[in-house]
Amino acid sequence: MVDPEDFRQTFRQGKRVGNPLIVVHCRTDEESDSRLVGFVVPKREIQRATGRNRVKRQFRHLMRSRIDDLPRGARVVIRVSGEALGKSSEELGRTLDGTLERAWARWERR
Question: Distance between CA atoms of 12 and 7, rounded to whole angstroms?
Fold first, then answer.
């Protein structure tokens, strides 16, 4: 996801679920079959660019294997906290799986 409007709509219209490491915002776009994922790593959470980029790379890699499990037209924004820096990919993956599952369950109940 690169379009700022996609981020805005996902933040405004989507459902939000979080934990100490990440906050997931999700929604679906019924007019599209593509699945889009975006990442937000605030500078105030992780000051150094190398740390922000490392965390984004970890989550991008984790989402690569999970993207096909998302519903058609899915729009997901993952906001990462500073506590994610230095965590193992396995721990981040477990956190991501649980949070995504809760977010989509909440979206479907809307």
Answer: 9
